[in-house]
Amino acid sequence: MATLLHRLGLGAVRHRIIVTVAWLLALLAVAFGAVKLSGETVNTFRIPGQESTTALDLMKQRFGDASAGANVQVVFQAPAGQKITDPAVAGQVAQAVATFGKLPGVVAANDPFDKRAPSVSRDLSTALVTVTYGVQPSEVTDDERAAITGALEQAGKGGVTVEARGEALSNAADVGGASEGVGVLVALIVLALSYGSLVAAGMNLLTAIVGVGIGVAGITTLSGFVQLQSTTPILAVMLGLAVGIDYALFIVTRFRHELRAGKDVESAAAYAVGTAGSAVVTAGLTVVIALAGLAVVGIPFLTEMGLAASATIVVAVLVAITLVPAILGFIGRKALPRKLRSAAPSDETIAEGRGFIRGWAAMVTHQRVISLVLAVLALAVVALPFFKMQTTLAQRSPEGSTQARADAIIDQRFGPGVSAPLLILIDGPKSVAYAATVQKQIAALPGVALAQPPRPDQRQTAALITVIPASGAEDQKTVDLVHAIRDKVADEDGATVYVTGQTAISIDVSQKLNDALPVYLALVVGLAFVLLVLVFRSLLVPVVGVLGFLLTIGSAFGATVAVFQWGWLADVVNAGSTGPIISLAPIIIVGILFGLAMDYQVFLVSRMHEAHAHGAAPRDAIVTGFRQAAPVVVAAATIMFAVFAAFVPQGNDTVKPIAFALAVGIAFDAFVIRMIAVPAALALLGRSAWWLPRWLRWLPELDVEGAALERKAARAAEPASV
């Protein structure tokens, strides 16, 4: 691989104008596609084939768009000392309801005073109005959203307290500029300090931004043909920006090292791609395996997210091994600090703080038992909250928002179950006759606050029962109630019973995700273990890497649960609302964090392996490799931490816990696992760390350290035989 990438890097630097123009044209092409072909993203999570999803589609066919469309629940609370049924107050409510019914996109707005289905609290202080749209939440336009917001503001001017919640009020998640701006600024500072050259730092950022631009624009174009989750572009930006900067950082650092060793610009760029580029390709392949592995879970929206993010990583790798050397050809020795551009060749790298790094490596490898035990214990303590993690798909409202105030009023006046209604669909030619029996059976179940009378469709081929649980959407009792209805309410000949609604869909998707997580974890760990065996031709080094990753995952989840579920230090990170972690977060975090953690394992240990292959004793090889790679890994981890952390205070509720887990996970992995635990463990293992059984020595050698290039250079340096 090193030889092939060396040729690619040499071709890129020699034909740098063509390579640069080709990448710029690619960026313009996908940007044009994003503008002309993009579509809408969605916020809903469904799994085709599940009972709740099948029933929702049937319900829409039988009862029309109003049964399954987006909605807004509006709460009217009478002033203190008055009742919502007082003529003056009721008149204001009725006028507002009439206005809601005429808004663009609205297909229904129920009358809370209708005697057939009243929606007034028992103390007569509050009325609940449901405004229904004929489309899914992602299809509600900005104009329609602005219209309902204006009507709500107008309705609240008459003295009645008006609050609202619902998926139709919130727009799809988008990529805000503030988050990326903070991450890029921190990255620029770290790069400038690492390189001692603004030219090199700016080049590094420029190439990363080109890769991110192509990846995100490509995903935006794809949204016109495939229904993607609204978080997919955000994940692509976070990942693309982080790995794009880091991959370029590794190659540029090696390029500068080769310049200092006396190579010319073209040779240094080609050699950097052949050596550091090999590690970049290996690390990128690990990330792609982890993300593309989401496809085996069998959940379409996760598959799409994983493949889209994988494509962004592939673009970042291609940029690193082609565009980066091309740009290096333009800037040449300006990549070095000004004082070193004319200095004599030296074998030493130019990273700052080398004395401290060498001392740190010597201390960790000398006090290896204590270092390893302290690192493991520290992360194990942080990981303890993980065992109390709860997940849900229910979207929590930001504290202080109108949605949060509406939640509080509804829970207090109507009960928590009103926020988690279940829809029971009885479908078939005998459904209407059987519906009354179903309603009685459900009403008798524990945990049911109300089972409303059946509502038949116009053709008398289906009936719908709304069930109000006694518990909220995130309560385990509601989950138990859904399972109880499915277990105890049987189908009849000609009448099939389904449990659906957003609460049931959330429960089904969460269960599917929780069941898939162990399988997915085993898959990505197994595949990456095989890849690391091929890279290092060792069994114990991959074991150390994988065990370290498991500690990273546990501690990242533990910290996320403590902050976002328990509320510890929630205000410090602007966590917003707290409660169970969103269900899709754990499996996404595992995939992304595993790939990035293996990046550091490859970059760090490959330099140790290179030193060992050159004849260094095991402990000396660890210190030498650590001295060469650790400063770059620290800089890369700092940049990644900054990019992910920037999305925590500014992101939406779906992105916040994911970004937080990735940020703290990167910090734990880079500064505890790779800087302490891995060198200490390898020092304990000694020569056995690089042991490979005889029966596995047939495995191909990937050569990420560039041994083939060194052998070629050595042969070229030998005098010609006479």
Structural account:
By secondary structure, the chain is an alpha+beta fold. It has helices spanning 2-14, 16-37, 51-63, 87-101, 142-155, 177-195, 198-222, 232-260, 265-292, 300-331, 354-366, 368-383, 402-413, 431-443, 476-488, 502-536, 540-565, 584-613, 618-645, 647-650, 655-685, 707-717; strands spanning 71-77, 106-109, 126-133, 161-165, 391-392, 422-427, 448-451, 455-456, 462-469, 496-500, 581-582. The strands form three sheets. Strands 6, 7, 8, 9 and 10 form a five-stranded antiparallel beta sheet that branches. Strands 2-3-1-4 form a four-stranded antiparallel beta sheet, with helices on both faces. A hairpin with a 5-residue loop joins strand 8 and strand 9 (462-469). Helix 8 runs parallel beside helix 10 (300-331) and helix 17 packs antiparallel against helix 18 (584-613). The longest helix is centred in the last third of the chain and has 35 residues, at 502-536. The chain is elongated. The two termini are 33 Å apart.
